[in-house]
């Protein structure tokens, strides 16, 4: 099952795995953290558990 890691930006486990295969490491977490700092996400609305 390809579960979401980030519901705001629709990143999945497979996205992280594929990014690592292509680039040697993933920067997805850094992108999520940066977007959260800039208030560009809406976890309270998009996440099924509202977190």
In percent, how helical is the residue content? 40-55%
Number of strands: 2
Task: Provide the number of structural domains.
Answer: 1
Shape: flat
Poorly predicted ranges: none
> Secondary-structure element order, as H and E?
EEHHH
Helix-and-strand structural type: mainly alpha
Task: Specify the biggest β-sheet.
Answer: 2 strands, antiparallel
Tally the helices.
3
- This entry's quaternary arrangement is single chain
Please give the alpha-carbon distance between the first and last residues: 21 Å
Estimated share of beta-strand residues: 5-15%
Description:
The structure is a single chain. With 51 residues, the protein is mostly helical. It has one domain. Helix content is 49%, strand content 10%. It has three helices and two strands, in the order ββααα. It has a two-stranded antiparallel ribbon with strand order 1-2. Strand 1 and strand 2 form a beta hairpin. The chain is flat and about 30 Å long.
